[in-house]
Amino acid sequence: MTQDNKCKVVFRKDGKKIQLDDIDTGKTLLEIANENDVQIDQACGGNGVCTTCMVKVKSGSENLNEMTEKEEMMGLDPEQPEIRLGCQCKVNGGSCDAEIAF
Ligand code: FES
Predict the structure, then answer these.
(1) What DSSP state is assigned to residue 43?
(2) SS3 35
C-alpha cells in the first residue's frame, strides 16, 4: 500500500529496472527521473515539443493524468494511453511502470 500522496514508479531502460518507492504524487515521469538520476532524453527541456522523452507505460497508465493537448499535437493517440511523453504525464497515485527509449 502506498500513502495517498505517494506513489511507486518503475523505470526500465537497456534491460535494467530502476524501482523508486515513496515518490510524491503529481510529478511528471521526467521530473521523477531527473530527481533520481534516471536518464531520459529531453531535447526541448520538458516543454512537450520534441518527443525525445517518449515512454511506453507497461502498467499503471490509469494512474496518470489524461493525455495533454501538447501530446496530441505531437501525434500521440489518446486511444493508445500507454505511449506518453515523460514530461507531460504526471503520476497521480498508485504505481506506474514505464519503459524509456523502447
Ligand atoms: S522533453 Fe521534449 S517533449 Fe518531453
Answers:
(1) T
(2) helix
Separation between Cα atoms, residue 25 and residue 23, nearest integer Å:
6
C-alpha cell at 46: 520538458
Q: Is the pTM of this model over 0.70?
A: yes
Give residue 52's identity as a one-letter amino acid code.
Answer: T
Using the mean position of ligand 1's atoms as its centre, give its distance from the Cα of residue 71 in Å.
9
Q: Assess whether pLDDT exceeds 60 at residue 92.
A: yes
Give all domains of the chain, ordered by start, each with its CATH number: 6-100 (3.10.20.30)
- How close is the Cα of 19 to the center of ligand 1, in Å? 22
The span from the CA of 54 to the CA of 32, in Å, is: 14
Position in ligand 1 atom list of the atom nearest CA 40: 1
Closest protein CA for atom 3 of ligand 1: 48
